Fold:
Amino acid sequence: MEHWPALADAVIEILEPKSGGIYFDGTVGEGGHAEAILKKSGPGGRLIGADVDAQAIDSSRRRLAVFSDRVTLVQANYREIREILEAAGVKEVNGILLDLGVSSRQLDDPERGFSFRNSGPLDMRMDPEGGADASELVNRAPLPVLEKIIGEFGEEPRARRIAQAIGAARRKKRIATTGELAEIVARGGAARRPGRHPATLTFQALRLAVNRELENLESFLPQSLPVLSPRGRLVLISYHSLEDRIVKNFFKSVSPGQAKILTRTPLRPDAEEIFLSRSRTRSAKLRALEKAGEEA
Ligand code: SAH
Structure:
């Protein structure tokens, strides 16, 4: 299924893209939000988009080709925001968007190894060139480390049993595919909830660890305010309670002299959007702030 850009109306309402504005989309993905920002900011608005995944850059490049030189796309980690903007010759931006998590394209492609429904190599790297993949973690990490990842990042109450089941399985044979892992986790006694595969929390935890998702977010947030122009806006969409907590704590740490919080409680998709996105947006939470100062 095509990737559904979560809460796109709210993103546009808050960013208020305008001609002459410059916008940074740090998780450009399939270019859904980026396209909306570019349409709204015509004829003169500019967008700088980054993604760690080269395939995402390729497909958003195709989608956004009509906007020609109004778009700059780079394969990079959003935590390098300063370097990315500098290389693009930009000092300040009017708006920043991070739409965290994985895209439907990544999730649905068995070869990328995110999916327990369609078995594939146990990979889970958003950047397939970068660092250790999930199979390395699952087959080599000490069991207490696995238990901690599954327990903390997955908030999986049965983390110990799952880690032990992984340990028993990998002593016999290397765990090579997402299907094998899903079965080990399910049979190992993962917590069950109606409507959800028992491996959901474990897969989510491993994905967060493999891609250092929480670290990236923590490193990015304090860098975002200095590159926003006065009255510029920062929009963050998270899909995981730990991500949302990091965003919330950052917002709390910002003084009213620095920025104004625009969302007292996070915005969530309504029932219609959740239905139309086939539940892919169901856990989305949007928080936003506006940098203080006088608009130039
Ligand atoms: N808003 C996009 C979808 C984003 S999905 C759209 O409308 O199409 C999330 C994307 O963030 C994925 O493509 C993933 O590869 C990317 N991503 C995750 N962590 C990243 C990071 N640290 N730096 C850059 N991109 C990242």
